[in-house]
Amino acid sequence: QKEVEQDPGPLSVPEGAIVSLNCTYSNSAFQYFMWYRQYSRKGPELLMYTYSSGNKEDGRFTAQVDKSSKYISLFIRDSQPSDSATYLCAMIIIQGAQKLVFGQGTRLTINP
Amino acid sequence: NAGVTQTPKFQVLKTGQSMTLQCAQDMNHNSMYWYRQDPGMGLRLIYYSASEGTTDKGEVPNGYNVSRLNKREFSLRLESAAPSQTSVYFCASSDTLFTGELFFGEGSRLTVL
Prior knowledge:
The structure holds two protein chains of two kinds.
Chain A: E1 4-6, E2 11-14, E3 19-25, E4 32-38, E5 45-50, E6 54-58, E7 61-66, E8 71-76, E9 85-93, E10 99-102, E11 106-111
Parallel strand pairs in A: 2-11
Antiparallel strand pairs in A: 1-3, 3-8, 4-5, 4-9, 6-7, 7-8, 9-10, 9-11
Chain B: E1 4-7, E2 10-13, E3 19-25, E4 31-38, E5 42-49, E6 56-57, E7 64-68, E8 74-78, E9 87-94, E10 103-104, E11 108-112
Parallel strand pairs in B: 2-11
Antiparallel strand pairs in B: 1-3, 3-8, 4-5, 4-9, 5-6, 7-8, 9-10, 9-11
């Protein structure tokens, strides 16, 4: 079993829809949580970064962390065609043997 | 501002050939990384360098070697390429090891025939 599980999709939704992307994890030592966005044939770029349970908002994007359930989500409101990309969750252990683990990535397409 | 620069962007090799992927960052970061990305597998860490003068194995180091040439440059070498090493390779850098934002290059697409 992988430490971080992410549905690879692909996910296709119409423009303006609310998108929910999710990751689950098995290691309770993960403390920091991130979402990266990767456009086709480009490197990933950091989108959201959070370390506490609860919600963090940035414009149309909301990152949600539920440490008790070992579950994180990224919500995209009023989705735009420019949001079409692969979204990767990532998690960090900073105490002891430091580690950063990426999910498999979810390929998202927003249709005009 | 160039960020992280990788060369070459594309390469085709025959089985058994060797090659080196070059990476340079201009952000004065301490830590650098090499990842490979394969369909359905996400990003897997090959090697990393916490700071100049140190390198460590990641999740999938077999068949690769690295050199942290100086603070800016981190190269990845395939000594005897195999078809299983066909992948997209990404170099990344960050100010501190594994924490904070990782800045990625645009990737190097390698095909081994």
